[in-house]
Amino acid sequence: MLLKDIAQLQDCKQLTTADLERKATGVYASDMLSAAMARAEPDWLWITIQGHKNILGVASIKGLAGILLAEGVQPDLETLAVAEREHIAIFSSPETAFELSGRIYKLLNNNGD
Amino acid sequence: MENIEAESFELPVKRGDTGSIGSQALAVKKKLGGFFTKNDDLRRLGVCIFEAEANLAIHTSAGGVITITLLHNAVRVTARDTGPGIADMEKALTMGYSTAPVWARELGFGSGMGLKNIRRVADFFDIKSSPKGTEVVFEVRKHAS
Q1: Residue of chain A whose Cα is closest to the Cα of B96
Q2: What ipTM is given for this predicted complex?
Q3: pTM: predicted TM-score of the whole model, two decimal places
Q4: C-alpha A74: how far from its chain's center?
């Protein structure tokens, strides 16, 4: 699955500059930062409703492929500016983490990766 | 623990400054990018420092200091504060147990995984606590690429 597959999800908005050809090899969904620190793997996508600056630390330290914000969460301008500077891809969708997980589970399986 | 010390530097963490949690971990990750040969070692160090920052910002009376020491084959990190200390260490080291306040939980902290994450990914972990303060020491060692 590529980040462009995420960008093409219905009503999904790309909030930062991103390499849409980057591969996301897995997905983790949680709103607890330490859980993402423990369970998300490098090059995975992280689904969460946390939109504050600390999520960038998690993404950068873990080497995540990107962050998908559920339920239409929009980070503040400072967070987006830091994300741009640190080259962290952020997307936002109005759907819930459950709905997004279902769609992306299908994407991962249909693509065979 | 290794005893050959080379270089060390200190990073302050303010009580309640949740917006900055992760900033010291990122700074260390950038500064020590050349120290490790495996990206995974650098990631493990970043995870541990992030959790130490969160603990100092959320659970202390006055914040604390993280000291980074470069050893021959490892990075040693000491996180110190001046209280109030950990009342029940056994519970504090139990997965899922947290004393984080509501405001921290709403930001996604307080999952009861912080200290456990450090203990799980570090190569060395030790913690001492009294009402006068807590000292967490951990090391992340270099592994061959």
Answers
A1: A35
A2: 0.92
A3: 0.94
A4: 13
